[in-house]
Design brief:
8 helices, globular, 4-stranded antiparallel β-sheet, alpha+beta, 8 strands
Amino acid sequence: MEKKDQGEVFAGSEYKIRDNEWFIKETMPDYTAEINRFMAEQDVDAFGITKMARYGKELVQLDESVMEKFPFAISFGLVLSRSVMETVKGGPNALYLHHYRQLNYRLDMIAYLLAREIEKKGNKALPFAASQLVDWKNQKGHISHKRVAEMSGLGWIGRNNLLIHPVYGARMRFNTVITDMPLEENGPLEKDCGKCKACMVVCPAGAIMENPADFDHVSCYNMVTQLKNKRNLGHHICGICIEACTGEQ
């Protein structure tokens, strides 16, 4: 390769010296900045990036090679309306159900648009559904959005078994897109719920314990099923502990 003068500049390239020779090296596009711009355009309330190598769980009903093909994950979330959540103090209702669904639809569309933008740049991206059970018995989707959000520095897993954002508390819904686009990852937050036990006080099932690892999934599910039938909602939702966890807003 032809040697270049040190001061000579070429658009889209940078020089690296090796064995006293200057070689042109194509600069890497700032994909992370492009993701930032996309999220701002979509009015996303919080987002972060992590590596799937940190996931530590299976991707349900997906081939094991998926995590190798898509080594980066983008987590993003939208905040639930404070006014809607205030109507949930006594339990879930039709207004909350509609709001819950609309945020999920919006998150699904953002995931689709983000994946499309990534693919336009020649990379691969796999968007997930914000709320879809593929393993009904174990109540699991393809991927744990709260686990990815935790890895991406958006919060921590609280006593109520939900992702707790430091500003918005549990009042968020999340979705995930995984990709092979090289991105800068965020580190996890070194925080927890501390002395706050607001969710423990209001949980009608008594499923929330001092230690988040002791969360009673069975009692929670049984209570949600009772609320669904009693209130004729047709959907397994509760929201009582979410309303109690307000964060710092």
